[in-house]
Amino acid sequence: MSPRISPVRAAAGVAALCGLLAGCAGTNASESGPGGSDNRFISGNGNATEFKPGSRKSIQDVSGEGLDGKPLKLADLRGKVIVVNFWASWCAPCRGEAPSLEQVHAENKAKGVEFLGVNFKDAKENAKAYERKFKVTYPSLYDGDGRVTLAFREVPPSAIPSTLVLDRQGRVAVRVIGATTYSKLGPLVAKVLAEK
Predict the structure, then answer these.
(1) pLDDT tens for residues 91-129?
(2) For 89, how many CA atoms within 13 A lie in the half-sphere containing its CB?
(3) CB-facing half-sphere around the CA of 32: CA atoms within 13 A
């Protein structure tokens, strides 16, 4: 993030984050979150939006602490196709898509695709238990206060779960709002991977 952010961009970023946070007070979670509420996510329809190379927004300076306590920087993965998944342990659709994400990750890692989770508004111990339960092998940034998610304001995820596919230049090539599946995500990742 630039140290100088215009008031309009800052307001847009705050509005996007507020929309995401307000949406997390939405519908249909099946397990209670840390506050005892079980209604904390927007359900997206899982449709994907693909962005042509000339209209892609770059994601800059995303960093933080992983669930394992180690520092993580998105910039360290530049040059690879990166799948960024926004999730929370309290989100039922996140649990539903977890096996698909892990399968796409396992099949594409050797091809130069990296996965990075962003654990949003969650209790760290619950998030770690989720990763163990679903055998998640890729790292996740811990975003307990929503600041990491704000760095994605140019192409906000808008729901939990959401998935972004970044091209090798760190630009958003695909955005999926809502849960995804193996049969949907696999071909999207392959398409971005095939770009030269």
Answers:
(1) 999 999 999 999 999 999 999 999 999 999 999 999 999
(2) 24
(3) 4
Q: What is the pLDDT of residues 77-87, one digit of tens each?
A: 989 999 999 99
Q: How would you list the strands of the sheet with 140-143, edge to edge?
A: 48-50, 172-177, 162-166, 81-87, 113-120, 140-143
When pLDDT is averaged across residues 143-151 and rounded to a whole number, the result is: 89
Q: What is the DSSP letter of 153?
A: T
**Strands 172-177 and 63-65: what pairing?**
unpaired
Rounded-to-integer distance, Cα 173 and Cα 191, Å: 10
From CA 48, how far away is CA 63, in angstroms rounded? Answer: 25
Q: Tell me the CA distances in angstroms from 149 to 64, 107, 135, 183, one per residue in order.
A: 11, 27, 23, 26
- State the amino acid at position 87 in one-letter form: W
